[in-house]
Amino acid sequence: MSIATTAPRTVPKAPTRSRIGSVLQLHTVAWPLLIAWPVGILLISFLISFTIYAIVRNDEGEGFTGSVFSVYGFVLAFYLQSMTQTFPFALGLSVTRREFFTATTIMALAQSAIFAIALQLLSVVESATNGWGVHMRMFGIARYFTDSAAVQLLALFATLLLTSSIAMLTGAIYQRWRTTGLLASLTGLFGALGLSAIVITWANWWPAIGSWFADTSRVVPMALLPLALAIACIAGAWVTLRRATP
C-alpha cells in the first residue's frame, strides 16, 4: 500500500515593482511630516514675516527672512525617521533591504523635485511682486547668486536631495552601528573638516578657493557639486544599510 504525497504549496512572491510601490505607500503614511508640516510652517512663517515687513516698511532693498530653511529641516527629519523607524517595520513585512532603499531613494528624488518646483515658482512670484509688495525675500535664495531660473531650480533640487541623502546616510549608520557608530562618524567628519581647514590655512589656499567659487560657472558649486555629494551619500547609505541589523 502506498501513500500519495503532495508537494507543499508555495506562495508566489510578489513582484519587486509592487513591493517597492508598497514601501512608497508606507512612506506616505507619514504624510504630515512629508508635506503638511513643511507647508504649514512655511505658511505661518510667511504670514509673520510679511506682517513684520509691512509694518516696518523697508524700502532699502529686499530683506531675507531665512524661514524657507524650515523645509530642509523637515526633509532631514523625515528621512531620519524613515531609516530609523520605517526600515525595521518594513523588514518585518518581508520587504528586502534593496526594495526598501530603492523606494526611499525614489521618494527622495520625487519630493526634492516637487519641493524645488514649488519653491522656484514662489521665488518667481516673489521677484515679480517686488518682494510681495513689502521688499521681503523668503524663497529666492538662489537669486542672490544667479539670475538663471534653470540654475536656481537645479540648485534647489540638488540641495534638497543632498539634505535627504545625508539623513539617509545618518540613519543607515545608526541602524548598523547605533549611537557609538553615529558619534564616531560625526567625530571623524568634524576632525576631517578641521584638519582640512588647518592645511588650507597653512598653505594659504583660501584666496584660490574663493577665486574658484567666484570664477567658475554658477551651476558647478550651486548644483553639480551638491548633486555629486548627494550621490556619494546615497551610495554610502546603501553600502551601510545592506548589512544593518535592525
Would you write up a description of this structure?
This protein is an all-alpha fold and 246 residues long. It has one domain (17-241). The protein has helices at residues 16-28, 31-56, 69-92, 97-128, 131-135, 149-203, 206-215, 219-241; strands at 63-64, 136-137. A two-stranded parallel ribbon has the order 1-2. Helix 6 crosses helix 8. The longest helix is centred in the last third of the chain and has 55 residues, at 149-203. Mean pLDDT is 88; it is low at 1-14.
Offer a few descriptive terms:
mainly alpha, globular, single chain, membrane, disordered N terminus, 76% helix, 8 helices, 246 residues, two-stranded parallel ribbon
In short:
The protein is mostly helical and 246 residues long. It has helices at residues 16-28, 31-56, 69-92, 97-128, 131-135, 149-203, 206-215, 219-241, and strands spanning 63-64, 136-137. Keywords: Membrane, Transmembrane, Transmembrane helix.
